[in-house]
Design goal:
By secondary structure, this protein is mostly beta strands. The chain has 1 helix and 14 strands. The chain has a 4-stranded antiparallel β-sheet with strand order 1-2-3-4, with no helix packed on it. A 4-stranded antiparallel β-sheet has the order 5-6-7-8, with no helix packed on it. Residues 8-47 are annotated as: Disordered.
Amino acid sequence: MLTIATMVLPPPATAADRPSARSPDGRFVASTRPTRGTAGASGQAPASLWLTDTRTGQSRELYRGRYSNDPKRNLSSLANPDFSLDGGYVYVEADAYATSPAIHQVAVRTGAIRYVTDGALYGVLRSGPWRGFLVVQQHRYRQNGNGSFDPFVIVKPDGREVAMVPGSDGDDPERALAQWLGAKRWTVS
């Protein structure tokens, strides 16, 4: 008797799959932890943003997730943290819309939070002329009414879009992003 086993491997991890992030100087780790509360639009579990000092091992809650009916203020389910270049801010996704999260900027010193843009946070550009800008995947609808697409866009920390990654409006946006970053020799966290 011949037995054939099939193993299904998960897709490779991308920057957008990160459960935690280390600050540029290595001192802090930002992560999300489950908390009590109301889930957001997608039903993702409520979470808070935590900061751990790697020198002392002490952790503090930087921001406790809060639900709101306003998608730009719904910070119930936080995920995918990433630090700004200077380490002064943590960018985090929050469950906002049925089709897309939103990205918020949290001040490390004060916990003050600010809405940046709609979309999924892929990472922060670490090199190139747009160093410090965000790579964001947004859900959009075609102007001619022929469906939707999920391109990658480059967004300034203040939320203003700089550019759409060429080719990311097609069938394989991840490949277009990888080719674009590779051709430019830019890195993203």
